[in-house]
């Protein structure tokens, strides 16, 4: 018998709000523990929550970008559970009336376009951060109460590749929409994965296992693959899967039982009496819709149609919003889109990955690149020299024109200098000259190389080629 | 300067403006009154004398500098569930022993702004759960009219200190009658404002959808003056409502006519088991209002009989979540355990009293999976019906008259073994909390045993003005409020 997996994701995304979800405390990653706290986010007696309107805006915009309906009436509920990461011992969330309903996204998975559907997006508050040290547990409430959205997909995926492509897409959209930075290392994007396996052809889904709270794409991939394998092996050997919550141990590359169905929490949801329901006026929604940013797919089309870039380039440039924004900034200063694209896809990406830095950290500015391209197009420097300038500025900073001047990188097109080098090359290399004259045009490249060498790279290659041809064809 | 403690806000305010006394005089006199009587009454949990005198000095200086406000320099006692920065806020529970409030409740900030003197913290049923102040873990309070009797609850300390002239006025909170019932038991005036009228920010929550802070005073006019100070939209409380605050104190004049006023009498509120003396006093009060020109009409509140059941489902459900934060992690009592679960269990077992535990368990039960629809959801539906009853009734009348409680204050220990019997005390007060409208408790007589009886005047949403007017007219033409317990 053959088996298939069904996967659904619950993705938690921390929004880029100025303050926490229900109080005016700021959130600052890496701040001194318990410095961004107040009676409300510490769950002090008598403190009350007040809804953050910016979070509602960002959640609605996320919903619009992921094709959801915005619920005309959504409300808040208390989810009760005792744990030190939740100051009030209940979390304010949305149970039966979430802010965004439905939704669907088109995602490319290994060259094939697939449609994944969403169940909902709801708004809630984040938990505090627990740290376990020898003999004690420490709680940092700085993160407690920060704005958190939960994007819930339907069980519509069937492989780790599907899940990863979906998450990468969601991440890209959240970044483009200005909703979240989705910095996984900072815990701004975490997913719970629901996985079940059933014999192909069976209608009902198999028993569901939930793997909680993973932030790395690589771990999620490993966990899904391990879990599909584990469940399939169990079923094949005549066993059955138990509905439970599992954790993933990245060191061992395995999932392990955390809580079985019998021990599942009864969260005792009930409407939050301290907050009013959310009813966003139609006019407001219209306004937000008009503010939605251009998405990667739309940018891609524009790059191809208006800037004349190949589809491949447009895809690479828009994959990451920071890169795409950098490209757009460079295009403010030059018209040569293909040259900008070549530099970003070539030198820039090489240097970024070699040095493991973000494009935002590059010392080379978009204006610098535009200037380098201008120097190349004006034939003042060669493309090779341009690449050298690029790398120098990337590492050290500086102005292209000044560097070209200081390092004497301007190329030589002056006929008398070129003529000397060309005559010399022809005279010293009779064999390639013979071959060229005998009908092997490629042999001219060797002579060309000799001239470039003699000029220490500063000769204008076009001019050299023209001069050599003139002399040899004569 | 003797006997300042016996005066009202209105009287003291006049004296202060006329320069006949200072706030320091008043506070000094009140402190001696507390010294003389509180040993017997037990209204206070803590009094910070130096702090109170400092505030009084500041009030006097502000007056010299030209500040004028009816509450300027008037000492007010605070129910021990309101957060006052730097002071304890125990809710009369062991679980909050050692907790110091880091912030001021909005009503406290408003009192400070008005120049009132925060006098001290008064006793209550633990977390406001009770009707006799016998569920208090940190103090025992007696009824000033008979020290063997309960002062009512949960704002028992707030009512007793005013009745015993140990405070000029006090703040209480009313979730199911917790202001009106002790005010009735102690012969004071208690106001439960419309839900949303007064900010709940800084009020340690018992049942969030029912709790309201309100004044307990010696007269209706004082109630109006203090309430006016507390009202208003608060951005820190999403359930506070943006309605204009009328000049509640000013509108109460010497005119005691109720001409043109229609007062409703709900037949369902004269329940079986009601003390005939209470019923008579209330019926006499109704006749009295008629003599002042009011027209008395019959109204019906048919769903009132479900109020107790609905109340004990909704209030306990909300309480089960509201009290979850008292876990020993961040403040208050902590008994360590080998893991968080054990720490919680030990702390909460030792920290909460019997009644609080009973209600947490009840609330947890009604919200449990499989029971939610049968209890919580159904209770919410009936709550809507109770509210509709009032909406209907107020189509034919301006205010409703009824008793506050079926009996006057009873002996201590009489109902402690039978929580259900105690719950039934709230039968005439809980419907108003469930519906969200306002009600006033005004003294209207005494039993033959000499215990005070209260008249409840119920108003529609945000009609505090109306019920104060009725209460004031009744009070100004009767003598009940002038009676004082002999201590
Ligand atoms: Zn905060």
Tell me the layout of helices and strands.
The complex is a heterodimer of chains A (474) and B (487).
Chain A lengths: L2 E12 L38 H13 L3 E2 L6 E4 L9 E4 L6 E2 L2 E6 L2 E14 L3 E5 L2 E5 L6 E7 L6 H17 L12 E11 L9 E6 L2 H20 L7 E6 L4 E7 L9 E2 L10 H9 L5 H10 L5 H8 L2 H11 L5 H19 L10 H12 L5 H14 L3 H7 L8 H14 L1 H8 L6 H11 L6 H13 L1
Helix pairs in contact in A: 2-3, 5-6, 6-8, 7-8, 7-9, 8-10, 9-10, 12-14, 12-15, 14-15
Chain B lengths: L8 H9 L5 H19 L2 E4 L1 H16 L10 E5 L26 H9 L2 E6 L33 H8 L5 E6 L5 H7 L2 E4 L19 E6 L2 H11 L31 E5 L9 H16 L3 E5 L7 H16 L17 H12 L2 H14 L5 H21 L5 E5 L15 H6 L5 H6 L2 E9 L5 E8 L4 H13 L11
Helix pairs in contact in B: 2-3, 5-6, 7-15, 9-11, 9-12
The structure holds zinc ion (ZN).
Zinc ion binds next to loops of chain A.
Structural class of chain B: alpha/beta
Number of domains of chain A: 3
Helix content of chain B: 25-40%
| Discrete helix count of chain B | 15
Report on this model:
The complex is a heterodimer of chains A (474) and B (487). Chain A is of the alpha+beta class and 474 residues long. Chain A has three domains: 3-284, no CATH class; 294-406, no CATH class; 415-473, Arc Repressor Mutant, subunit A (Orthogonal Bundle). Chain A has 15 helices and 15 strands. In chain A, the strands form three sheets. In chain A, strands 1, 2, 5, 6, 7, 10, 11, 12, 13 and 14 form a ten-stranded mixed beta sheet that branches. Chain A has a three-stranded antiparallel beta sheet with strand order 4-3-15, with no helix packed on it. Chain A has a two-stranded antiparallel ribbon with strand order 8-9. In chain A, a hairpin with a 4-residue loop joins strand 13 and strand 14. By secondary structure, chain B is of the alpha/beta class. Chain B has a domain at 4-261: Amidase signature (AS) enzymes (Alpha-Beta Complex), CATH 3.90.1300. Chain B is 38% helix and 13% strand. Chain B has helices spanning 9-17, 23-41, 49-64, 106-114, 156-163, 180-186, 220-230, 276-291, 307-322, 340-351, 354-367, 373-393, 419-424, 430-435, 464-476, and strands at 44-47, 75-79, 117-122, 169-174, 189-192, 212-217, 262-266, 295-299, 399-403, 438-446, 452-459. An eleven-stranded mixed beta sheet of chain B has the order 1-3-2-4-6-5-10-11-9-7-8, sandwiched between helices. In chain B, strand 7, helix 8 and strand 8 (295-299) form a beta-alpha-beta unit. The mean pLDDT of chain B is 96. Chains A and B meet through loops of A and helix 9 and helix 10 of B. Zinc ion binds next to loops of chain A.
